[in-house]
Amino acid sequence: MTGAGATTLGPEALMAWCAAHGVAARLLRPGVPTPTVPSAAAAVGVLPERVLKSLVLFVDGHPRLAIAAGEDRLSYPRMAAAFGTSRRRVRLASAEEALELTGYVVGAMPPFGHRRRLPTWVDARRVAPGLTVVAGGGARDALLELTTDDLLRATEARAADLTEPKPGDEPRSTPPEEIER
C-alpha cells in the first residue's frame, strides 16, 4: 500500500521531530528487538505498565491514534464511546495502512512524529501526567524514553477510558478534563 517513492521513517526522523518540537526524549537502543510490550520492558528494565503502545485506528473512516500502556487491551466499546460512535464504526488499521499513514512499521510505532498528524487519544487509566515512559522508537530495536507531560503536550491528546480495567485497578487519579494539553 505504500506508494512508490514513499520511505519508511526511522529513529533519526523521530529524533529530528522531537528536537523541532521541543520534546526532551532519549533514544534507547537496547541491542535486541523490542516490538512487544514484554520485550520492550525486559530490554530496558522497566515495568510493562511504563511501556506505551501506539495503535492506528479508523473511526467512522477517519484515522486516529490510541495510546495505551502495558499489556492493557483496548476495548472497542469503550473506544466507541470515547469517539462518540458505534462499536462497528471502529477498527484497527492494518499494518500496511498504519505504515502508509505514519511512516513507521507496526512494532516500532512512536506516539508522534508521523508522516501525517493523527488526532490522538490516550488511556486515562494509565497515561497520566508526571510519568517517565518508553514508547516505540521508530525501529523494532529502538525505544523512545520521554515524560507523559511531553507526550500529552506534543500530541494534544484527549484522555478517555480506552481499555478494559483489570481486577484490582484503582480508579484513575486524574480526570481527563484536568489533563492539560
Task: Give me the secondary-structure topology.
Blueprint: H1 11-20, E1 26-28, H2 37-44, E2 52-59, E3 62-69, H3 76-83, E4 90-92, H4 95-102, E5 120-123, E6 132-136, E7 143-147, H5 148-155, E8 158-160
Parallel strand pairs: 3-5, 5-8
Antiparallel strand pairs: 1-7, 2-3, 2-4, 6-7
Please give a structural write-up.
With 181 residues, the chain is of the alpha/beta class. The protein is built from 5 helices and 8 strands, in the order αβαββαβαβββαβ. It has one domain: YbaK protein (Alpha-Beta Complex).
The first-level CATH class name = Alpha Beta
Whole-number tally of structural domains: 1
Determine the strand fraction and express it as a percent band.
Answer: 15-25%
Mean pLDDT: 90
Question: Tally of extended strands?
Answer: 8
Helix and strand sequence: HEHEEHEHEEEHE
Helix content: 10-25%
Write the CATH fold name: YbaK protein
| Tally of alpha and pi helices | 5
Strand order of the largest sheet: 4-2-3-5-8
**CATH architecture grouping:** Alpha-Beta Complex
What is the general shape? globular
CATH homologous superfamily descriptor = YbaK/aminoacyl-tRNA synthetase-associated domain
- Which parts are unreliable, with pLDDT below 50 for 5 consecutive residues or more? 171-181
Largest sheet: 5 strands, mixed
N→C terminal distance = 33 Å
